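Each record in this resource describes a single protein on a pair of labelled lines. With that in mind, the following record should read easily:

===
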Amino acid sequence: MRPPRNLFILFLAVVALPAATLLLLGVRLLEQDRALARQRQTEILEQACDRGVRALEQNLAILTKRLADPSWAPADIPGDSVYVVLRPDRVQATPPGRLPYYPSGQMLREPPAEPFGELESQEFRAQNLEKSLEISRKLAASPDALIQAGALLRQARILRKLGRAAEALQVYTTLSRVTSVSIGGMPADLLARRARCALLAEQSRQSELRQEAAAIAADMRAGRWQLDRASFRHVAGQVETWLGSELRASNEEEALAAAVAWLHQKWTSTPPDRFPSTGIQFQPFGSVPITILWASGGGRVAALVAGPRYLRTHWLAEVQKAASPARAYFAANGGKPVAGDAPPGRRGDPRRVQRTAADTGLPWSVVTAGAGPEEESGELAARRRILLAGFGALLVLISAGSYLIWRSVNRELAVARLQSDFVAAVSHEFRTPLTALRQFNDLLGEEDDVPPEKRRTYYQAQTRATERLHRLVESLLDFGRMEAGGRPYRFQRLDAAALARDVVEEFRGEVTGRGFAVQCSVDSGEYLVDADSEALSRALWNLLDNGAKYSGESRTLELAVGRADSAVAIAVRDHGTGIPASEQKRIFQKFVRGEAAKSQGIKGTGIGLTMVRHIVQAHGGEVRVESEVGQGSAFTITLPGVTSDK
């Protein structure tokens, strides 16, 4: 059966076509609103980006001016940054511990060689260690720090040759207090402390060795000595050997030292008149990006060497504050963020605006992006809300209409399928008794002299077929009247047990020839009900007939009459195929037949149980089923009971 076309036509005329038109107009209007909103937001981001660039330029200009002032000293330098002052004779870093090594070692005064000529002659040529020791002690008493440092170093060396290690250690301790002298390019105090460690290692005094080496490592981390890279690596290697652990600079410290070395090399290799008085440079050193801002003049270069944290917490924060509520970040030439996080989106997204390094002269591009809901005018926002509300209502209407049509079509198709099955089943039910009648009529017509007993048998068979046909026609007529609400019921007080016995006795005559045994059991007591005798008999007959159809190999049917509280209960049980739980709720609906009936070819019209439900409900009762596949089924009719004196 085709779905009714008028439903589709009605839906198209009333809902679909107007809805499609409104939807198309609404989409175009929303696109215009969205384009206006994007244009407005782009303008906002442009303004925000310009504000951020101006704020950053002002900040850098102020900082550059401070760097050019020799009297300025920074109060606070973040952990991944350092303030350096480059001079021809030294490099000064603030705070000192930020740089593990410097572009060049600290230029300290070296002891002269002349005062130690006689001492070294006695020590090396004459091999007179006692005489050379006496000379070294006299020189160590000199008020000149240079001569004193040179004498102490030689005195400790002579004592070690004489095997007087304890005295040598004391001399090294005295030399370690000299901090303004360099010996062989190495600070005298560091040289003395290294010599103490070497002597302690020779004597296997591990506890003292570790303590002394740990003190050297702590002073190196604190920046006590200004060492070049080679000296730092050499001393660090010795300390690592003594401590058994690494003394390595972090990636950030290495990057800061490399950046300072880059600036120092640029300054020293460029003629003074060509070196830029101010500048800013951003580039990675190792894996750490570093920004160098400097100002030169007066034979010095002052610079702020800033790591990623400084970039975020100072310069990017300044831009973000000025660009608010937009979100800002710095990007390299390739567009990769170097400070801050880029919001997700495609390249060329109109929600981003940038000022490139070529436009601003800064070492990075400044990018601003949308930071929240689009800023819209009140009228635009109100119109969008109305459109969205209309679309929502339209969607609900379309969904509801589609659901109703889907439900109606499915229902029509289901009814069509059931009716088709019903017509086929009724046709089959009619064909069986009609075939029997035609067969016996042919037999009676072909034989001229039929014996009386045989003729009687033919007539009885015709009578059974006629009664079956009559019963089928009456069932269909009664079902039609029940469906239309025109079936009259004539209620009278009767004995439900007696009626049940009569129906069982009549049904036995119908099925005994097929090998069925129908049992009827009645509990003791009185079972009076107000009922239509014909209708209730038909309900019981239908249940017995249904049980016979679905008995399978079993040939036993049971009907029992008893009490259920104050009500009368009549139960019909078979021991056949049973009904699956998924079908038990649907078997009382008209034209519905179980899968077992279809698969096993069991005859039936699909209205028997529906009639039972109609009849029982008309009597104020109820019918229920209990079944298990393979164990049979039990249908129980419960009717209101009455007393004999009513």
